Automatic annotation (TrEMBL):
Record-level Gene Ontology MF annotations: asparagine synthase (glutamine-hydrolyzing) activity
Keyword Nucleotide-binding: yes
Keywords from the UniProt entry: ATP-binding, Glutamine amidotransferase, Ligase, Nucleotide-binding
Database matches in SUPFAM superfamilies: Adenine nucleotide alpha hydrolases-like, N-terminal nucleophile aminohydrolases (Ntn hydrolases)
Domain of life where this protein originates: Bacteria
Pathway: Amino-acid biosynthesis; L-asparagine biosynthesis; L-asparagine from L-aspartate (L-Gln route): step 1/1
Entry EC no(s): 6.3.5.4
Catalytic activity: L-aspartate + L-glutamine + ATP + H2O = L-asparagine + L-glutamate + AMP + diphosphate + H(+)
Keyword Transmembrane: no
Classification via InterPro entries: Asn_synth_AEB, Asn_synthase, ASN_synthetase/amidase, AsnB_N, GATase_2_dom, Ntn_hydrolases_N, Rossmann-like_a/b/a_fold
Domain Glutamine amidotransferase type-2 as annotated: residue spans: 2-211
Protein's name in the database: asparagine synthase (glutamine-hydrolyzing)
Recorded family membership: Belongs to the asparagine synthetase family.
Length: 640
């Protein structure tokens, strides 16, 4: 894993150096830049060495004839297989790195090489002959890539913060992105908090010509399940799962794992134990104090992680986390590049920091299991919605019976939320289910003061396209598609990458391997979810490997008990950041609508904790942005 940055335009080496400064945490093992002065192109690289630790594998790397130059962030898991193919065709290699394999494969096949890759990546290749820049992001968006397409040039980097050092990159806030964060806690499109900066979407690549004209293409589309999937054997799933995990353990450095005691992470560690000596697999679990208010569903992970570690005979490192996180919040939000109010991010960083102290640069995680095979409460709600929809008037009756439940407990909150969703049409239910709050959509829209005529849905073209293309599928399958296209890359994978790389630790996600994604699309809905059980095929396949308690435990959140935290230690922060003075000064939100939101939280009338906390996080993120320096124009531009 590494950090990449570069530009095509009238900028100086000093700007590229400043961009790499912002990415130094991603690559503590080396740093270099390369320039094509005649074309006004420059690219830099901050290296985290994982495969081929020698200096010969440093980047930017160029082909023997000097035509192609690459800066690459990621891992190509099938690079040894690809290397053998290329060698049989006469290609001679100078290193043992996956970077050189990717470079030579691009040299031979161009953009078509993307279909050959099994891995996680974001990379840029400069063609000195044609003076074209090519950039690409991996199929599911594990690795990030941001860019700014300006009238006089093009800049790109692994993180948004690296682009803000350029004085030509405007810092105007994108109100549509703000609206998306309030609705979903993340932004479901290529937009970022800055109008001038975009995210290259997962499964997309782009060509930039000598005049900085940008052409974006989709090279991969997440497959959809057939409406008539036939039953699959759990043994076939288990065999594939073990191959994927073994493949993703490739590294020339020690590989550890996150072990939360849930089904997904426990399954990954159990599979790792079949690929290597369990004593060599150091595992890490965040320890969260049990929430005594019962307002949040946290606190049991460490108990199950200990039991699984004993069963699998792997070392377990417990990483204590507490609710005393206020001082770390501004730093976390800026490091995420998004105002994502999810403390699972900070816990991920704490785990990565502990792994680093143990000399481990690579961690395998269980991210993605819920999104392929079901696991969230919204999946259960969609399953119930579909079952009741088969019975005349059943949805409406059930909705009226349960939607009034008070939100003071986890059960009451879930029943009230289910009642709210049951009253909606299918498309409305699916979109609303992606929200972390039961605050009515009309009230959410009213929060955004600068765009009162715009709806949240208008900023979710991605959702609209997916809803239109999945109408033949079961509602749960449609919801899983929304997860894979938005929630996974824009929330889970974003904080997984950013927080791991803050500590120079690579977090891999075997459950999101393309082979498992394709397999999941062949699994019928009946093998994914029932009324009382999610991830059915995964639980059945792992029945002989995992503890009974782990196999049957209910889904728990990863992070901190936010609702209890906001009502307690963070109370002062919430009051300050939502005060009429602060809200009015920022100009993004309507003070009266924010006051209604605050009252709903204070009086516990609605489950609005996440939307209120996101509003606070947006204010903090904007303050962090204003504190970040940029280069002077005279330093950032080449001398005339």
């Amino acid at each position: 894993m590494c950090g990449i940055a570069g530009f095509l335009g009238p900028w100086s080496d000093r700007l590229l150096d400043a961009m790499l400064d912002r990415l130094s945490h991603r690559g503590p093992d080396g740093r270099a830049l390369w320039r094509d002065s005649e074309a006004n192109f420059a690219v830099g690289h901050a290296r985290l060495s994982i495969i081929d630790l020698s200096a010969s594998a440093n980047q930017p790397m160029h082909t023997a004839d000097g035509r192609y130059v690459i800066s690459f962030n990621g891992e190509i898991y099938n690079f040894k297989e690809l290397r053998r193919e290329l060698e049989s065709a006469g290609v001679v290699f100078r290193t043992k790195s996956d970077t050189e394999v990717l470079l030579r494969l691009f040299e031979c096949e161009g953009q078509a090489c993307l279909s050959r890759l099994s891995g996680i990546f974001a990379f840029a290749v400069w063609d000195r002959t044609s003076r074209h820049l090519f950039v690409a992001r991996d199929h599911l968006g594990v690795k990030p890539l941001y860019y700014a397409a300006l009238p006089h040039g093009f800049l790109f980097a692994s993180e948004l913060k690296a682009l803000t050092v350029c004085p030509d990159v405007s810092r105007d806030i994108d109100v549509g992105c703000v609206a998306n964060h309030l609705a979903f806690v993340w932004s479901s499109s290529a937009s970022t908090m800055l109008k001038s900066v975009r995210k290259l979407r997962p499964g997309h690549c782009a060509w930039i010509d000598a005049n900085a004209r940008l052409r974006i293409e989709r090279y991969y589309e997440i497959p959809q399940p057939s409406p008539r999937c036939e039953r699959v054997e759990s043994a076939a799933f288990l065999s594939l799962f073990d191959r994927v995990v073994a493949d993703q353990m490739v590294a020339d450095v020690p590989v550890g794992a996150c072990l939360s005691g849930g089904v997904d992470s426990s399954a990954v560690v159990a599979s790792m134990c079949r690929a290597t000596d369990p004593a060599r697999i150091v595992t890490f679990c965040a320890s969260v104090p049990k929430d005594r208010t019962h307002a949040d569903n946290f606190g049991d992970d460490i108990v199950h992680a200990r039991e699984m570690a004993r069963r699998l005979e792997v070392p377990l490192v417990e990483v204590p986390t507490t609710a005393k996180l206020i001082d770390q919040l501004p730093r976390m939000l800026w490091e995420l590049d998004e105002p994502t109010g999810d403390f699972a991010a900070l816990q991920t960083r704490m785990i990565a920091a502990e792994a680093k102290r143990h000399g481990i640069k690579v961690l395998l995680t269980g991210t993605g299991g819920d999104d392929l095979f079901t696991g969230y409460g919204r999946h259960v709600a969609a399953f119930i919605w579909a079952a009741l929809d088969q019975i005349p008037y059943a949805r409406g009756l059930a909705s009226r019976l349960i939607r009034g439940f008070p939100s003071r407990s986890v059960l009451g909150r879930r029943l009230g939320r289910l009642g709210q969703l049951l009253a909606l049409s299918e498309d409305e239910m699916l979109t609303e289910a992606m929200s972390f709050s039961n605050w009515p959509a009309a009230e959410r829209i009213s929060l955004v003061a600068t765009a009162p005529d715009q709806s949240f849905e208008s900023h979710s073209a991605l959702f609209g396209r997916l809803l239109g293309n999945t109408r033949e599928l079961h509602p749960v399958e449609r919801l899983l598609q929304l997860d894979l296209h938005g929630f996974v890359p824009d929330l889970n994978l974003n904080y997984t990458d950013k927080m791991g790389m803050q500590e120079g630790v690579e977090l891999r996600v075997p459950l999101l391997d393309l082979r498992l994604v394709a397999f999941a699309m062949q699994v019928p809905i009946s093998q994914k979810i029932a009324l009382w059980q999610t991830k059915r095929i995964l639980r059945k396949a792992m029945a002989d490997r995992l503890n009974w308690a782990v196999l049957h435990r209910a889904k728990q959140g990863f992070g901190v008990p936010l609702r209890a935290w906001m009502a307690g230690p963070a109370r002062g922060l919430i009051v300050e950041m939502t005060s009429p003075r602060v809200v009015t000064a920022r100009g993004l939100f309507d003070p009266a609508a924010v006051a209604r939101l605050r009252n709903a939280f204070d009086q516990n009338r609605s489950d609005v904790a996440f939307i209120l906390f996101t509003l606070v996080c947006i204010e903090i993120w904007c303050r962090q942005l204003s504190c970040q320096p940029s280069l002077a124009s005279t330093d950032a531009r080449n001398a005339a």
